[in-house]
Amino acid sequence: MNKETYPLTVFMLVKTQPEWLAFDIDTRFALLAEHVEPILARYRDSVSFRFYDVEFYSARVTDMWVWDATDHHSYEMVVEALRETPFWDRYFAIVEILPAVENAYAANYGRDALANVA
pTM of the full predicted structure? Predict the structure, then answer.
């Protein structure tokens, strides 16, 4: 299997910017609906998104965006679209991007991945 076709999880560490924090809650949700929801809808068959709040426990980042993609190209297309919005380095600073392939340590050696046993 070509590595580009492997499923991918990306942990994107971000920090809210003062402009975002100056908006009231209704405006924030309206901006998400205007800019981010159409991207998620366009790529819903290949990329999913989860949003985690971190600001309670970290000063370096305030949130973690987690992207699960069926392939690398789909994730790249989401990033390209997101970069065309004010959410990329205007409302949020992109602090670090950590791509990961789940259980690659096992797959690379033809082994079963560790599993949680109840």
Answer: 0.86
